[in-house]
Amino acid sequence: DVKVTQSSRYLVKRTGEKVFLECVQDMDHENMFWYRQDPGLGLRLIYFSYDVKMKEKGDIPEGYSVSREKKERFSLILESASTNQTSMYLCASGSYNEQFFGPGTRLTVL
Amino acid sequence: GENVEQHPSTLSVQEGDSAVIKCTYSDSASNYFPWYKQELGKRPQLIIDIRSNVGEKKDQRIAVTLNKTAKHFSLHITETQPEDSAVYFCAASIGGNQFYFGTGTSLTVIP
Q: Rounded to whole angstroms, what are the CA distances from A68 to A23, A99, B45?
């Protein structure tokens, strides 16, 4: 059974703080993804990674960066959190033709 | 890049009726089309998928159809039940790695 876990379910941060969201998968998947989910906008891809130390920008990378030092772990970083980054963040990992999602982190930036 | 549009954004049906959700895509190179169901407070989970070499696929009460010429695909749920209430997302993919998601349909099944 594939497990994708995220470091926090709920997080509250202040404007300007540096925020780390971590995602870990246990299926040896090459591909990992970070999405944000907002009402009416669906799932929008922030960044993805096809391999260790490799990253590619998705549709909305501005204000975010990522790190993939190990195959099983993919981190999303908000260098200086802003209120418009309040959202649900979903990590996914996958092999060809399927993505498995983590439980999500609801981030509130005050 | 690929653009996926999904309609309707909300859908209410009586229990036992059918529900249909439609998606269109823009890139004719897309060849894989999964559907995800997200129950309230839970993660999205794959419920059915279809590849571009197939026109229809069924799994019990759910089915997906694909029209490559028109670049649209649809999810059909028959004999709806209250537990079908959720947000449904369609997606399109070229080669199965990066997915482009629709904006979601919130389905409510009224008992």
A: 10, 18, 24
